[in-house]
Amino acid sequence: MEVIEPKGHGQHAGMWVFPDASVMTEDVGEKTKAMPRPFTTALAVTGIFFVLGIVGFIARAVDDGFDDIAPWGYYMAIFSMVFMVTSGAPLVSLAFRFTKSHWRRPLSRVAELFSIVSILNLLMFIPLMFLLPDIANPEGVVEGELAVRKTIWFEGPIGAPHAWDLVGVLFLTITSMTILWISAKPDMAECRDTATGFRRWLYNFLAGNWYGTKRQWNAQKAGLALLGAFYFMILVFMHFVISSDYAQSLIPGWKDSIFPVIYTITSLQMSLGAILVVLFIMRRWGGYEGYIGKSTFWSASKVLLGVTLLWVYHLFAFFITFWYGRVEIEQNVIKYLITDTYAIIFLLNLIFSFALPFAVLLWNPVRRTAWGPALAGVLVLFGGLMFNIRIFVGSANAAPGSNLYRPFMEHIPAPVYPDVWDVFMVVGGLGAVIFLYLAATKLMPLISIWEMKEGTLYQKWGKFLRGEYLILGKPE
Amino acid sequence: MQEGKPLNSKQVNRELLVSILNSPKWFFGALSVLGFIVLVAMSTAGFMINQGFGVTGLNRPVMWGFFITNFVFWIGISHAGVMLSAILRLSKAEWRRPATRAAEILTVFSLMTAMTMPLIHTGRPWRTVYWIYTMPFVPFDYARGIWPNIRSPLVWDPSAVYTYLTSSILFVMVALIPDFAVLRDRTTGISHRIYGMLAMGWQGNARQWKLQIIAGVLLSALILPVFVSVHSIVSWDFGMAVSVKSWHSTIFAPYFVVGAVHSGVSAVALVLIILRYIYGWQNYIRHEHIDALARLLIVVATGWFYFFVMEVLFGFYGREADEIAVRNFQFMVSPWNIWMMIFVGITYFVPVAIWLSRSMRRNLWIMSLACILVNIGMWLERFLIIVPGLARKQLLTFDWYTYRPSSVEWIIIIGTFALVSMLMLTIARVVPLIPLYDIKEGEILRTEIKIGRVTVPAVFRED
Lengths: 476, 463
Fold this sequence. Notes:
The structure holds two protein chains of two kinds.
Chain A: H1 21-33, H2 37-64, H3 73-98, H4 105-112, H5 114-117, H6 119-131, H7 162-191, H8 197-207, H9 214-245, H10 259-285, H11 294-325, H12 328-339, H13 343-361, H14 364-367, H15 371-396, H16 420-441, H17 449-458, E1 459-464, E2 467-473
Chain B: H1 9-16, H2 18-21, H3 26-51, H4 66-77, H5 79-90, H6 100-122, H7 129-132, H8 139-144, H9 153-184, H10 189-199, H11 206-239, H12 252-279, H13 287-317, H14 321-332, H15 336-355, H16 358-361, H17 364-391, H18 407-428, H19 436-445, E1 446-451, E2 454-461
Antiparallel strand pairs in B: 1-2
Helix pairs in contact in B: 3-18, 4-6, 4-12, 4-17, 5-6, 5-11, 5-12, 6-9, 6-18, 9-10, 9-11, 11-12, 12-13, 12-17, 13-15, 14-15, 14-17, 15-17
């Protein structure tokens, strides 16, 4: 598809694209079907990584079993990384749709498609459920130890935390997939007429009886709003649960009310970063240049800049409160996670989650490109990986044995480096995400056709005084 | 989102300068009443300084009460200015236009009022000079080698607040220049000369507009870190105190900032509704603007509620006896538990329930009520953080006590509300509380798109 570039406005040219609505369905359908060689190669390579991850997991299970959480620190870290990216992405889409931003249109489906990858969350969480130590001290009441360790479940409802955590992850996955389904329904209905074979059956099945009546559009809008609100609540809750159960409660003495917030912000930062990377790849190599204007990168990068600043602000709020008080319990947590044991990982985390993306995104000329925000996206993803390694490897190994039931961490443990199975699992986890996402792009259109078509109605190019400018419709 | 009919430049000037060029009959009456209340409050503060803190309800261990609560409250209100003006300007939200000026000016006055509170609270205000200066003409410190403790949040606090005040004044003044020029051209005599001086030679040429826009954007971006730092540092007045268990929480900084935005934006919405009513600015402050503010408030309030839940939950998480004692006092002991329920209800559940309904968002009476409730609730929030924490600060129960504010404190607190109202009313006589040029720009950029049989409001965008 050709890009119709506005003329006469040097720096603004190419910021907005105006795709032709009449050929959009066919064009996107063709792109969805196409299997170019680089795509199949990427699929094969990530598939191999995926298999390596499974090998690493089996080897770890055979070597160490599921009795002790300590050897599974890197597995926890990669689970959390996958969880953060895939759970945050649908929220990014929902938030920008809620604010009615026109520039969001090309990224809506890109973000929602991560819902399919969220199946991995569920699969990866099942072993973790068995690894989480009991809340009650198995030794009973022992001097110098707590009978019940500190968790958000306190004395706990029946099945806490294990079963409830699983139910939460399950709900989150189902909700995000339902959102994807409802959002994609109009596109499925459009595409079913041109698709063939399995895709035709799938689109027909997913579209159901969608005919695009006014009632159906209203129902879709209401459904997305309601599910969006529900998803937001359950997402925030699950971030709170995972960050507390699998991190904070495993480090004795770590009582940090801001950590769930930091976790959620990191998740949003990483998912936005991942979305920008996907958008860049689509635009550069996927043939979607006619659909994705630079305005999408420009606007999303400003949000990423804001989230990056929020991240460092919350981190500082945590650090200063713990550092200033000079309380031994808090000092030990800082030494363990920030200044001593995992100091290098923390430094990498800080550089890649804040310093470098901030330096990149600070410059408007860089934000106005497609590569600048995508580069920042890669940086924050790496920073996020460091964050997860620091927190979850640290948590899994903070209190070996019954030390977990002590009121605080008396000795600061040494860092734990990955062995070959850990490397396999980390690489495998990342490979699995990319593999599943790539596969998903061949099942569903990567562009939300109905939203793009709606956008063509509201975005015009018009004459104003002596120049031509963009006109944006504001329906409500 | 553009309701109402298009406005031309002359009409904008005529209608928005009505508060300056014509004095309504009620104006001096209202000003006198507010001035009287302020005078009574000032006399009461003088009485308190003369008599000592014995005339207040402050005691050991509750040494922070109404004054510090009120200080945090007014600092919170000041966050509306930047929230609305800078963030919405950077995000190019069209509906910001009528709200920015009032928000910025409210910021300045609430900051000034806030800073009177710690001064009054010291009991000996003249001695606050020791917080900052050690100079030969301040003999006490100089002689004894006592220096300001820069590690104390009480030194960070004034530094941050005064930086915010300075930058807010600069922010307002830069935005006011084109409007001062309009006033310069429509006044005579001494007013003409003063407005001429303030307009700084503004002619409205392309270069001046460009500079003004760049200055506005730069100041918007630069003021944001100051805005965040101010309430963070105020929160650290509490958070750094390890001896008060319920205060020593890592979430305090963002919790305070979000709370401040919540109360501040609600206050601005209320001010806008009042301005619309008293000056007849229906063409400018329209239902759509209040509606947009209310929708923004749903998000802010929900964010605030999330932080509140985290703060309380992690209070219980540690299960430490001294913290549980505070929480027990907050949630189980009457009347504190009743206040707690009222506070949560009127800060979150009632207003958000109102804002979820489009018709209620557009009912100005109900919106006013919701905004007032939020601000009462946010005042209570600070009170319920400060007093129970101190009341149960000590380890031994015979050192536990409670707090009951005296009439002296009530009068001074009421006086601060009168002071801000009086200052707002006075400034409305001097500068337009709705920016003329911003409204005119909005009108120029306003257009429509025809889609089928429907005409959709639209705007021209440069990028």
